[in-house]
Design goal:
mainly beta; Lipocalin; about 55% strand; globular
């Protein structure tokens, strides 16, 4: 089922701000959830990912709750594109602009975005939720 709220952690809600991480470390930006509903997600992001500045809205509009089909997606204020999507094993995968973008609820309170061809995952963590002890340890270990 392509309910967009099922592919992010339930702690991430409309109006929530979030921090953006490369994997689980380092923090590379922030953003906010402008809309998060079963058929529409609008996320604002301001981050620097692998040397590339990413700033603007990412908008996804699903036609219905079918597990596959064609949705609409817009990156950083660009045009709304028709994009095929599939859902499998708790992950939504959308093909657009020659890449596959996958979204999943992840673990603990992480939500994960993966982009084909990018050698890292983008982790989103709700700003209002303190990192748990094991995540703080993961972050500290990444410094070593």
């Amino acid at each position: 089922m392509a309910d967009l709220t099922k592919f992010v952690n339930p702690a991430l809600k409309q109006g929530e701000t979030y921090d953006v991480y490369l994997n689980r470390f380092p923090q590379i930006g922030s953003g906010n959830v402008k809309a998060l509903q079963p058929l529409q997600a609008d996320l604002y992001v301001d981050a620097k990912i692998l040397g590339n500045a990413i700033k603007g809205d990412i908008l996804i509009r699903m036609p219905d709750l079918a597990p596959s089909g064609t949705c609409k997606i817009s990156f950083l204020g660009g045009p709304l594109l028709d994009a095929p999507y599939t859902t499998k094993d708790g992950k939504l995968s959308i093909k657009a602009l020659g890449r596959t973008v996958s979204l999943s609820g992840g673990d603990k309170q992480w939500s994960w975005i993966e982009v084909s061809g990018v050698p890292a995952s983008i982790g989103i963590w709700p700003t209002s939720h303190a990192l748990r002890e094991e995540d703080e340890m993961d972050l500290a270990g990444a410094d070593a």
